[in-house]
Design goal:
Blueprint lengths: L10 E7 L6 H15 L3 E8 L5 H6 L7 E6 L4 H10 L5 E5 L9 H10 L4 E5 L6 E3 L4 H14 L13 E5 H9 L8 H10 L5 E5 L1 E3 L8 H19 L35
Parallel strand pairs: 1-2, 1-4, 2-3, 5-8, 6-9
Antiparallel strand pairs: 4-7, 5-7
Helix pairs in contact: 3-6, 5-8, 6-7, 7-8
Protein name: Glycosyltransferase family 2 protein
Organism: Actinomadura vinacea
InterPro entries: Glyco_trans_2-like (IPR001173), Nucleotide-diphossugar_trans (IPR029044)
Length: 273
C-alpha cells in the first residue's frame, strides 16, 4: 500500500463532491481499487464542493490503496469544483469522474492507453455505438440531453455526448483549459472542451458502460434556462482570442496554470447528461 501523500503521480483523478457522504465511500473504494490495479503511480483529488454533511471527513479518513487528497471549493457548482481540482494537479495525465461512479471504471484502461499514445483529450460517451447505458429512464432528461448536445457539439470537438462525467486529458492541456474556465454550473464541460479544442487538441470519444445512479440534482425543468444562458456566454467567449494559443499537449510535468477569474454562475450537480 502506498503511503498517503506519496511521491509524484503519473495520473491524478479529480472527484467533485457536494454532499456525497452517502455515495463517496463506495465510490472511493471502487476508484482506489481500479487505480491500484493500473500499475502506475496515481492519486485521487476529492474536491469538497461546499458540503454540509460528512464528505470532507470521509476523505480525511480514507486509507485506501492510493493516496486521496482533500481540496475545498466554497463556490457551489460542479464546474467550479472540477476547476479547483484540475488546477491543483501536476501529473502528466489527469481527468475527472463523478463520485457515484456511474461510468464503469473499466474504461480507464482505454483512456490511459489513448493518452499515452498521444491523444490529448479522451472522453466517455454514452452515445458511442458500443456503449451500454442502463437505467437512463427519464424521457425528458434523455430528450434534454440529446437536444443540449446538438446545440453545443460544434464547440466541443464534434462529440455527441459532452456531459458524461468521465473525461481525461494531457495534464498541461487540462490545467491551461481549466485556468480559462469561467462556467461554474452544469454547462462547464462544454467550455472546458472548447478551451482544449481552441488550443489545437482533438477530442476522442470512447465507449462506456454507464448506469444511472439515484441522487442526481439536475432537473430539466429547473435548470434548462441556466444551461442555455451559460451556453450563450460560452459562445461569446468562443469569439475571443486564446490567451496562449500554443497547444499545451505535452504530457511533461509543469507548474499549475494561472487561473482567470471565475464567473459566479449558479448551478450544482451532474449536469444535463
Amino acid at each position: 500500500m502506498r503511503a498517503h501523500g506519496g511521491g509524484p503521480a503519473d495520473l491524478e483523478i479529480v472527484v467533485p463532491a457536494c454532499n456525497e457522504a452517502g455515495r463517496l465511500p463506495a465510490g472511493l473504494a471502487l476508484l482506489g481499487e481500479k487505480l491500484a490495479g493500473l500499475g502506475v503511480p496515481a492519486r485521487i483529488l476529492v474536491v469538497d464542493n461546499a458540503s454540509t454533511d460528512g464528505t470532507a471527513g470521509i476523505v480525511r479518513d480514507w486509507r485506501g490503496p492510493v493516496p486521496a487528497r482533500l481540496l475545498h471549493c466554497a463556490l457551489r457548482g460542479k464546474g467550479a469544483a472540477v476547476r479547483v481540482g484540475l488546477l491543483a494537479t501536476g501529473a502528466p495525465y489527469t481527468g475527472f469522474c463523478d463520485a457515484d461512479m456511474a461510468t464503469d471504471l473499466a474504461a480507464l484502461d482505454e483512456a490511459l492507453a489513448l493518452l499515452r499514445a498521444g491523444h490529448p483529450v479522451v472522453v466517455g460517451s454514452r452515445r458511442h455505438p458500443s456503449s451500454l447505458v442502463e437505467g437512463y429512464a427519464q424521457p425528458m432528461r434523455r430528450l434534454g440531453a440529446v437536444t443540449f448536445n446538438r446545440l453545443v457539439r460544434d464547440l466541443a470537438g464534434g462529440i455527441r455526448d459532452t456531459q458524461c462525467g468521465f473525461k481525461f486529458f494531457s495534464g498541461p492541456l487540462a490545467r491551461a483549459a481549466a485556468a480559462d474556465l469561467k462556467t461554474a454550473g452544469f454547462a462547464f464541460d462544454v467550455e472546458l472542451l472548447m478551451h482544449c479544442v481552441r488550443r489545437g487538441a482533438s477530442v476522442t470519444a470512447i465507449p462506456v458502460v454507464w448506469r444511472d445512479q439515484p441522487g442526481t440534482t439536475f432537473s430539466v425543468r429547473r435548470h434548462t434556462s441556466q444551461c442555455l444562458l451559460d451556453v450563450a456566454r460560452i459562445r461569446t467567449r468562443a469569439g475571443r482570442p486564446v490567451r496562449d494559443p500554443r497547444p499545451a499537449l505535452s504530457p511533461a510535468r509543469n507548474p499549475p496554470a494561472q487561473p482567470a477569474p471565475l464567473v459566479l454562475f449558479k448551478g450544482t450537480g451532474a449536469g444535463p447528461g
